[in-house]
Specification:
Elements: H1 12-23, H2 26-34, H3 40-52, H4 54-59, H5 62-81, H6 85-104, H7 115-144, H8 148-185, H9 219-270
Length: 271
Amino acid sequence: MTASPGLQAEDRPDFERALHQALRTAEIREALGRSGSSGGTDIQRLRSQALVESEAIATAAAPEYAAYLRQRAAAATAASTAPGPSAAAATAASAVRAASAVRAAPFTTAGGRGLLPALAVLTPALAGASAAAFLLLGGLLRLSGSQRETADALLTAGLTSATIAAVTLAAGMVCLIVTAVRHRSSPPDRQPRPHRRPHAHPHPHPHPHPHPPSGSHPPYAWRRDDAAVATARDAWLRALLHRGILPFLRDRLKMSHTLSRTSQKSEKGST
């Protein structure tokens, strides 16, 4: 079996299905019945002859086949240059992760709001350490009885630092409690559900029109190219059937019928 030069290997099943359709037509069945050879052996013989002569048969629909190949190549080029749904899904996932990271760190954005937690922790600690140092030095100087004015100043500074430490510690605790309540009362983030592509189901028609995926981009261009390919394919198959396969089968049946009548005449003449 040799394919025509323009007939690609992936189109051989279409050629064989068109041949099978031609052999099942009423015209070919009736012609086989008139010649007295309607059995399965004769049908297989016709099929084998058509497959052997597929090169000549395919040339009858060469213009339609060339147009079909052009449309198919153009659609493949458009599909390879357009971004697929996986790229869009990856971009959406990256955006969701970035938004989640921003929401998870509210104190690290918008200018200097990142200083608030540091001040809330450092201020009570520094004030408390300063208060302890001032009170210790002031108490020692008062006990020694020397530099009474310096001891009083140190004690006053220690009390002031202790007050600052207590106030900042209370303010920090209030901020922590408010932040915890706010995060607990905020609704959970809703993650977008990924769009699932519908599963492809086999079509009972021998030449189905392919359906575009829901996530293709751009959808209008995809449907337009796909419809053009399907139309060109149908036109090629019709031309192949009516201008190539059926005339070939008619000629072979006519030749077989002529040979059968010639052989019958020769047998009668010999008798």
